Every structure is written in structure tokens, then in C-alpha cells.
Amino acid sequence: MSWIMTPGGLLMARGAFNLLFGLVLLAMMLQAGPAPGFSRGAFYALADGILVLASAVALMRSRERWLTPVVLADALLRLAAMTMIIAYPEMHQRIFGGAFFLSAVVVALIAVGIVGVLFVLVRKHAGRGAVVWLALTPFACTLLLGTGLAVAMLTGGERTMLAYYAVAAGLLLAYAGHRAGRTANPQSA
Asked: What ranges do the domains of the chain cover?
């Protein structure tokens, strides 16, 4: 199995993807060009969901397979929500349907993030710091995304929040993937 298909490699790939998207979005905002549509963010989140799904598959084949159910729930949530946004791009403009759907997505993201973080913290990981990074970081990012969307929905700053989230999540995920990769391959440390 190639290194990129390991949990650490996929975290680094997710980190690079998130960081690239965040920097491009920030550059677009600084140039005051056309605002990326709501569905552009959904395509970004859909691609990130596919990477999360690949992470779940990689985890099933690793020593850390105990993480698979929660990572799979995270992936399926992202994929289902973003597919709905892409299929119905005008949904967020409808007052009741859009508000209900986005509120449900925010609550689900926060719930999956909290459950994931608690799931990892309840497990015993004495001397396995890379596993904790590998496990906690994606769930912390999911929790951060849900919380950020909740605040952005109140302030109307979804695009700015998404850009900053993508940069921060990209850095965290890449670092966690690097830590997990170094531990999995001790001769490179």
C-alpha cells in the first residue's frame, strides 16, 4: 500500500487540499472579484468528504480500525449534505427550507465532532501521541466547521469563515498527518 493511502497520508492530502482551497478563497476575497457561489463551497466540502471517506477505508485496514465508524459517519454526513446543496443550489435562499437544512447540517457537524472527540478521549492511548493526533484532529476540525457555520449564519460571513476554516484545518490536518506518518515510519524520523 502506498504511503498516501495510509491514514497519515490521507490526513496530509486533506490538509493540503483544505489549505489550497482556503488560500485561493482568501486571494479571491482580496481581489474583490466575483464572490464564489454557495455551491462552490459545497463542491469543496464534497471533495473533502470524499477524502474523509477514503480515510475511513484506510482506517479499516490499519491498526486504528476502531476509528472507522465515527470517521465513516463524518464522511457520510459531509457527502449527503453537500450533495443536497449541489443538487438544490437555491435551497439556501428559501427562508424556511434553507434555514432548517443548514441548521440541521450545523447541528450534525457539531454532534459528530463532539462524539468523535469524546470517542477518542475515552480510549486509552498511553505513549501513542501520533494516534491521538490522527484521531482527534479530524473531529476537532468537524466541530470547528459546525461551530464556525453556526456563527457565520448569524453574521452573514460564510465566505470569510470558510476561507479561514480551510486554512486552519489544512494546517492542522497536514501536521497531524505528518505526525502520524513519522510514527508509522520510524526510520524517516
From this structure: 3-188
Full-model pTM:
0.75
List per-residue pLDDT tens for the chain, 189 residues long. 576 677 778 888 888 988 898 888 888 777 765 555 556 677 888 888 888 888 888 878 877 777 788 888 888 988 888 888 778 777 666 667 677 777 888 899 899 889 888 888 877 654 466 666 677 788 888 888 888 888 877 777 777 888 888 888 889 888 888 877 655 544 443
CB-based burial, 35-47: b 16+ in 10 Å, e otherwise: ebebbbbbebbbb
Which among 137, 124, 126 has a CA at the least distance from the CA of 180? 137
Q: Answer positive or negative: Cα dihedral of 177, 183, 185, 186.
A: positive
HSE (side-chain half, CA atoms, 13 Å) at 32:
0
3-state helix, strand, coil in the chain (%, to 5): 85, 0, 15
Handedness of CA 11, 17, 21, 22 (dihedral sign): positive
